[in-house]
Every structure is written in structure tokens, then in C-alpha cells.
Amino acid sequence: MPRSSTNHQVNAANDTLSATVQSPAKVNLYLHVGAKRPDDYHDVNTVLHTLDLHDTLTIRYMPDPSLAGTCQKNLRITLHIIDAQGKPVMIGAPEDNLITKALMLYAHYACIPAGHIHVQAVKRIPVQAGLGGGSSNAAAALYGASVLFPAGVALEKLACELGSDVAFFLHGGCGYYTQRGDILHHRLHATEQPLCLIKPDKGVSTAQAYAYFDSLHETATGSNACSQEKFERETVHSERLQPKELQLAKVQMEKLLHASNFFRTQTLLHNNLTSAALGCCSALQPLHEQFASWSNKLPDKRSFLLCGSGSASVLFCESRKEAQRCADAAAQQGYWSFAGALSPCGVQVVPL
């Protein structure tokens, strides 16, 4: 990936490099979690689509003449995470943050001179919302590092080491992913469908949602056949989809994404983690009831579903104006909300 004065800044006086990268959110238009695999991951079939909601990462590298070499131990990484109003955001220990892990991983394969990398992350994507903010930040860090220090490293391979959906954000748009949800089966038509995101104060961790999902499965399989049938009906639990089913889903999803009445279509919008998320987060039940109420009051009933493992939900709208009205109504009731649209863009450097 060649360096260019249009996508990063160089201070010749002190060899400082910097790049600013947009890090988009995502929504799972279709999420089907299946059986737990021998590696403790789950079979996942999902359609991912990026949104026009994004965080911003500014990555600055400053050489340190007192240090020698290019190894990871001579590279110091610091994070400054703030919200859109400039207030500090605490998201665990810096060394555990996916931004730090992504930069250290890239440094392992690329020859980054000894020095200091400082990252300022402006967070607009809420945490524990099912919107992929952490994974997107990891992809943005990888991409930003490759812009500042191009080394011919396969970013997709590194992304898969960091998380199941990190690689998706390198390209963005829309795609159908299988296995652990990390392998691209095929790309789909990306749209700019208007939508409204709404989230209660309480979040749902992905690990917590999957653990609850597993407990539902264990309860169902440990009881009678009626309970198992009820579980499968509520969670659509199954093994990995077969090739013919994937091909059919591809055709159906293509029709959905090209449909003029996308916001009224519920046939393939699906998330079988919903029951688990509702079990983890009591605040989700009244929100979903409110969603149903808003949807029914609109001129035509709109489609809505939980985002990933939650706790945000998405309501698809006919226009941005309608999305803004829904977001304003949610904000008046104390919910976090965002009016925007689906987007074809993945992580990208902000031009200077």
C-alpha cells in the first residue's frame, strides 16, 4: 500500500507520521448462530452491512532516537479515547484494547522503527451495542498502520487473528459470511437504506449473549422433545447451512437488498440471538415493545431487529426524515439514538 501525501501527514522536522481513519459500525441483516464447534466458536452464517455511523482514529507515530531496532518491545503505544463531545471514555485496560492488539500484531510483521504510537479514538459507536465498534477499530488500526508503514502484509489474515468480523470492516459494504462468521462466502449489493438505531443504557457483552444462548440450548436438549422443538422454533438453532441453502439465501438476500420496499420486508431480516440478548438484558424487552409500537404507528409497518448480540436495535425507515423523527422520539424517552443509513464504505483514511 503506497504512501501518499493525500492520505497521511509527514512532519519533516521530526519524522512524525499521522493518519486519520474512519471506523464504521455494522448491522447484521441476517444472523444465524448454530452449533458450538470443537474450537469453542459457533457456526455462524451472517449478512453484514456497514453503516454511516463511525468512530475516528487518529494514529500518530513519533520516532524515539533513544531506542534502537524495529521489534515490538521498542514500540510504545498509548491510547486516548474520547466521545464526540471530547469527554474521556474508559474501555478497559489499554493493553487489552483491540486497537493496541492490532497495532502490535501489525508491528510483528512490519518493520516499524522504534518509537511511540499515540492513538486518539473519537467514539461515536456505543459499546456493547452489537454494532461492531471494537472490531471496526481494530480494522482501522491495521489499515492506518499499513498506510504509515506499508509492508505488503496481508491485512485480512491479521484481521482474522483479532476477531471474527474484523476482516469485514477492511472492505465494508455488504457480504455473506460463514464458518465462524469470518469467511466471506460472497459479496452482496450494498444499499443506503435509511434507518434509526436505538439503544438502552445497559449493554450486552457478546460473550454474555453467547453464554446465555448456549444455556438455552443445554436446557432444551436436556429436557423433552417438546422443549427442543420450542427452542429450535425460537432460536432457529441448526448446524452450518448447506451449499444449496446458502445459494438460495444469496438469491433471496439480493432480491431484498435491491427491493424498493426494503423497509417493509421482514422475511430475511433475522437474528436468532434475540432471545438470548433479551434474557441477558431486561431493558431490551420494553425497548422492543416500543419499537413495535413505533413501527405500527408509521404509515406502513417497518422492519426492525436486534443488532448482533445487542443491546442496540435497528428500525428501517422510508426516508432519513422519518429516521430522524424516530431517533428524536427515542431520545425524548432517554434512549441513545442515531438517524442514518446503511453505507457501502469500510475503514478509510480521511483525506487531508
Describe the structure.
- The protein has helices at residues 98-109, 133-148, 155-162, 166-171, 206-221, 225-235, 243-258, 274-280, 284-297, 320-332, and strands at residues 9-11, 16-36, 42-63, 75-83, 115-123, 174-178, 183-188, 194-199, 270-271, 304-306, 313-316, 336-341, 348-349.
- It is of the alpha+beta class.
- The chain has 2 domains: 9-189, Ribosomal Protein S5, domain 2 (2-Layer Sandwich), CATH 3.30.230.10; 194-341, GHMP kinase, C-terminal domain (Alpha-Beta Plaits), CATH 3.30.70.
- The strands form 2 sheets. Strands 1, 2, 3, 4, 5, 6, 7, 9 and 13 form a 9-stranded mixed beta sheet that branches. The chain has a 4-stranded antiparallel beta sheet with strand order 10-11-8-12.
- The longest helix is centred in the middle third of the chain and has 16 residues, at 133-148.
- The radius of gyration is 21 Å and the shape is globular.
- Mean pLDDT is 82; it is low at 1-5 and 221-241.
